Amino acid sequence: MPDSLVIKNLNASIGERPILKDFSLTVPKGEVHAIMGPNGTGKSTLSKVLAGHPDYSVQSGSALLDGEEILGLEPDVVARAGLFLAFQYPSEIPGVTIANFIRAAIVARQAKGAPFDAKAYYAELYAKMDALKMDRKFTARFVNEGFSGGEKKRCEILQLMMLKPKYAVLDETDSGLDIDALRIVSEGVNRMRGPDTGFLVITHYQRLLEYIVPDRVHIMWDGRIVHSGGKELAIELEAKGYDWVKTELATA
Amino acid sequence: MSTLTAPAGVLDVALQSAETTQFRAQDWFAVLRQQGWHTFQSLPMPTRDDEKWRFSDARSLSLDGYAPAPEPTEALAAALIARSHFVARPAALVVHVDGHCVLRPALSPELTAQGVRFETLTDAVRHHPALLQEHLLKHSAGLGGAKFLALHQAWLRAGYVLFVPKGVEIRQPFVSVNWTSTDGAAVFPHALIIAGEHATVSIQDYHLGATADARALAISACDIHTGTGAKVSRLAVQGWGSRTQSFQVDNTCGGRDALITSVNAAVGSRRARLENTVRIDGPGADVRLYGISVATGEQEFDQRTLQIHTAGQAKSDLLFKNALLGKARTIFSGLIKVAPDAQRTDAYQTNRNLLLSPDAEADSLPGLEIEANDVKCSHGATTGQVDENELFYLRARGIPLEVAQELLAQGFLEEVIAKVEDEEGAEALRGMLSAKFHQV
């Protein structure tokens, strides 16, 4: 499928420990898919493996981004191919301002030697910061340094909006957010929804999915998807709890 | 062309003739220079075994093959003056090429009326002999570079004297730019800064090669004297050509309640040694010493610092950061000395080195000698590589490995760049540091 992120029979481990076990999932462009599951089931590993994190090793399987294999590529190549990972715990980068950081990411996507339109860049950056209710002074602040949990997540969504990937993986974006921040962040994501972007929203809680309403919900358990359904599945899961997954779905 | 050391007599004669023609009326100055020459001759070259030269490549030190260069052509002087405008509106600008002044500083009538003096060293020798006799080269080099400082003294000619009288506050920086151009030029730039009581002044010193690979010998010195409550901030950029050997000997005296900030940046030279001594002899003084470098190729940056606290209730804080690429080496050796009477001293010293190449090497020798019992002193040194998580985060945004490493290195250095109060100076420094990542 050319217009999809297709993950097939992915087996990946950290050190000797297998985490993803024959994991398969397809996210078509234009759709929002949610992955829910208890802690330790491999949700974050999935996002890191897709993004090319060097700590994880892939034993087998494939991940095709619009038909192009991204497993085994360097992390920056994966990103430029069109995958964006919103981190659960974004790194603090002392001494590097947000403006310079995002600028470097955009320049990396331009043809070598192409001129950088700084005026247009700042206009867009400010507009998107306004939308995320971020103070413009943030452009001069060092990336994530001294940010609150909510500020860090807003900064992730700002990057997402500026870089306009084909697919975005949001790893526990709701963690550490109060309701106001959750609403703002979700609005940012919703504004980006459309035929050109696919979303994979990883979350532990149903709460986020009230704001970012998914097209499909997948339940992950022990390194693979064990159940898929519509948006009502998230509500069902919330009501029945993860024990339901353990006793009924995981054994199925 | 004669060299500085062989045959020695040639230089001796050259010196004496220089004295008789230029400095006839200033005998004390001729004597000072001759004393420098005699000291130079009496001192041995440093060796590897010398503790003050530990880790540095003392064996390859050589003063052969350098000589004072003739005056530059007018065209060259004009071209280099045009490249000296790091600050759009400095309080005044002085430019030297190969040790010859090509742009004399012009002070505004307002500053002149306030008693401010900013003159070339040779002018100041003529105009203010008493001031200079009181302040010029009053400190010996205690960190191992005595022989080089003596040669500097023997060839004292280039440089400037900045005097800011009591109570005068000047926001715009004074800028001095020293270029080397002639192959094998020997230059000896001197900076003498005297800030009176409660005076405020900022200075930027640029030491640069006219071409990126200029070969020269540069032995420079800077003395800072501060009166009670004076505020002095200085940025010194060592950006000599890549085949240059350079030595910089700085001495700073922190008077009562003085606030002194100095940033020593290094990007140029094949080998560069910085010796920076701070004497805190006034209570309440606050001296901040920063160092920053990007060392590439086979560069050796050798940094020796000494914070001497003789007065109590004063503070000194040192932070030196080096980023290393290629086969570069840095040596940081710092000592904090607190005299028995200097109670309630706060003195800190930190050296951080970022290795961006497996072949780079950073040595760190922090030290404390504390004879007072009521002090807060600490020193620390770290040497490491870029943080893997930070690197992944940047790469996950599509930034290629080399660019990501450079961004992280620049971020690492930014902590020190931020100490340069003048934004144009900070930007000039940022540009020079950044350029180092692209010439490998």
Tags for this entry?
heterodimer; A: about 250 residues; alpha/beta; Rossmann fold; 10 strands; globular; B: about 450 residues; ten-stranded mixed sheet
Description:
The complex is a heterodimer of chains A (252) and B (440). Chain A is 36% helix and 27% strand. Chain A has helices at 43-51, 75-81, 98-107, 118-131, 149-163, 179-192, 207-211, 232-240, 242-249; strands spanning 4-14, 17-28, 32-36, 56-65, 68-69, 83-86, 167-171, 198-203, 216-221, 224-229. The longest helix of chain A has 15 residues, at 149-163. Chain B is an alpha/beta fold and 440 residues long. Chain B has one domain (68-386). In chain B, 24% of the residues lie in helices and 38% in strands. Chain B is built from ten helices and 20 strands. In chain B, the strands form two sheets. In chain B, strands 2-1-5-8-10-12-14-16-18-20 form a ten-stranded mixed sheet, with helices on one face. In chain B, strands 3, 4, 6, 7, 9, 11, 13, 15, 17 and 19 form a ten-stranded mixed sheet that branches. Classes of the chains: A alpha/beta (252), B alpha/beta (440).
- Number of structurally distinct domains of chain B: 1
CATH architecture classification name of the domain at 4-91 and 165-249 in chain A: 3-Layer(aba) Sandwich
Number of E-type strands of chain A? 10
User: What is the H/E order of chain B?
Assistant: HHHEEHEHHHEEEEEEEEEEEEEEEEEHHH
Low-confidence stretches of chain B: 6-10
Question: What's the arrangement of secondary structure elements?
Answer:
The complex is a heterodimer of chains A (252) and B (440).
Chain A: E1 4-14, E2 17-28, E3 32-36, H1 43-51, E4 56-65, E5 68-69, H2 75-81, E6 83-86, H3 98-107, H4 118-131, H5 149-163, E7 167-171, H6 179-192, E8 198-203, H7 207-211, E9 216-221, E10 224-229, H8 232-240, H9 242-249
Parallel strand pairs in A: 3-8, 3-9, 6-7, 7-8
Antiparallel strand pairs in A: 1-2, 1-4, 4-5, 9-10
Chain B: H1 8-22, H2 27-42, H3 74-82, E1 92-97, E2 100-103, H4 109-113, E3 117-120, H5 121-127, H6 129-135, H7 146-154, E4 159-164, E5 174-180, E6 185-187, E7 190-195, E8 200-209, E9 216-226, E10 231-239, E11 245-254, E12 259-266, E13 271-280, E14 286-295, E15 300-309, E16 315-324, E17 329-338, E18 345-355, E19 361-370, E20 375-384, H8 388-395, H9 401-417, H10 423-436
Parallel strand pairs in B: 1-5, 4-7, 5-8, 6-9, 7-9, 8-10, 9-11, 10-12, 11-13, 12-14, 13-15, 14-16, 15-17, 16-18, 17-19, 18-20
Antiparallel strand pairs in B: 1-2, 3-4
Helix pairs in contact in B: 1-2, 2-7, 8-9, 9-10
